[in-house]
Amino acid sequence: MPATRTQPDAWSRQRLAGVLGIGAVVILTVLAGLVTVILQLVTRPGEAPHDVLAVASADTDRRDQLAAEPMAEVPSDAGFTPDPALNPAPPIEIPSANARGPAEVATGFPQTPQGAVGQLAAIEQTVLEAMSLPVARDVHAAWSLPGAPTYEEWELTGNVRSFLRSGRQNGQAKDPGTFVQATPAMALLKATDGPDWVVACVLLDVQATIRADARMGYGHCSRMQWQDGRWQIAPGAAPARAPSAWPGSVAAVEAGWLTWQEAGS
């Protein structure tokens, strides 16, 4: 019987301190657990017949099930352990952004599942590289649909808040001397339901410098919905947490992550 694998609890201060061999190094901590958001269908009297409401309810139930489906488990230290796979994961081709959208997030991705992945990565990069609560709030407000996890519940908000707290940063944004870079390294499509709904997942190569360098792999999933001509964070509770593993590692490949490749490159 294979050894039991567990999900990493967080981008923990203790873990990175162990990786770097010093006690003062700190980095991102993901809030433990997920807060359940109840998606409510609101209609005006006479606006939709009963059968339409029934179909919408069935769609919601199906999407809830797809989002909540558990993902592969990896060792708790997989995100911090380089362990090159002998055979790289197959590529997944992700389109490039061609415009700047609300809250200065790159956009212009097509209405395809791969476009949803690209948009999610752009949202993640903007929030994590800024490491600023005001930026996170602005991005969430601009890119979340009604019924999505709130700003306070959003996993990325938790990352920023914990980074600022654990890193002893001043105020609501990272210090001028602190550096964070989040680069998409792998991705996967967990689920699709029609042309306008995707559970997209991105594995980021996150590098941070506070008083020393640290590096890790971080996986994140989100419901995405095409609305108003762009992909946005969709209503409903956050999906099951994605496995975090070092990009390109055995654990990443075994968890199903695919190698990120920009279209045309």
Q: Which strand order spans the largest sheet, edge to edge or round the barrel?
A: 1-8-4-5-6-7
The helix fraction, in percent, is 25-40%
SSE topology string: HHEEEHHHEEEEHE
Total strand segments: 8
Could you say how many structural domains there are in total? 1
Uncertain regions: pLDDT < 50 for 5+ in a row?
A: 1-10, 16-50
- Return the structural class: alpha+beta
Main sheet: strands, sense, barrel: 6 strands, mixed
- Please compute the radius of gyration using only Cα atoms: 19 Å
Principal-axis shape: globular
Task: Kindly report the average pLDDT value.
Answer: 83
How large is the share of residues in beta strands?
A: 15-25%
**SS field, number of helical segments:** 6
Distance N to C terminus: 42 Å
